[in-house]
Write a structure and sequence with these properties.
Layout lengths: L6 E12 L6 E7 L22 E4 H8 L3 H7 L2 E5 L7 H10 L5 E6 L5 H7 L5 E5 L5 H8 L4 H11 L8 E7 L6 H14 L4 E5 L6
Parallel strand pairs: 2-4, 4-5, 5-6, 6-7, 7-8
Antiparallel strand pairs: 1-2, 1-3
Helix pairs in contact: 1-3, 3-4
Bound molecules: iron/sulfur cluster (SF4).
Length: about 210
Amino acid sequence: MKKQELSAPLIGIVRHRLATDGKGVTTLVAFHSCPLRCRYCLNPQCLDPDMVWRTVTTSELLNELLLDNLYFLATGGGVTFGGGEPLLRSEFIEEFCRIKPAEWKVNIETSLNVDRTHLERVLPHIDQFFIDIKDTNPSIYKQYTTRDNAQVIDNLQWLLQHEGMAEKILVRLPHIPNHNTQADVNRSRAILNEMGITHFDEFNYIVNPE
Ligand code: SF4
């Protein structure tokens, strides 16, 4: 019997992004659902069960992304999986990577707060990780996301055991209003640096007054 194709719920597809989330021209594929509950979530629709934009199979997604094949090939670009938390769809990503053109780069924007099996499944296919670490301080992390960060640190340590991995990782370190300070960010940066992380993106969350 023919194996049934996997499908996944999305909150959006954004084409023609240039050097924002990976090399060259990329298309962002944003999945629904996330294990975190960040106080200032940028994509709250991914947390609302009624806000699935559409559901696609791997071959439907491939056909849609093939529209930009020439851009990807000419610029060394490809697809960026975001969300929500894309690693919750690791089986879908793995299946997609098996059928996509080999030249396309694959980037992932993740919090790493998922079971290790998801990470193991996609690892051979990922060219660049954008890791949204929030803050390494467990109490700040919990206060901001409502979740524990032990799995995040554990997964990051596991990733860094792989040869050349530090070059594939960019860690996002946000200044989160009302949650962390510059001293907290500096402390996170020092801890991550000690672990072997060398590429950082430090930035401010812009929060609308309530
Ligand atoms: S990790 Fe991202 S998508 Fe998930 S709750 Fe936080 S901001 Fe929202």
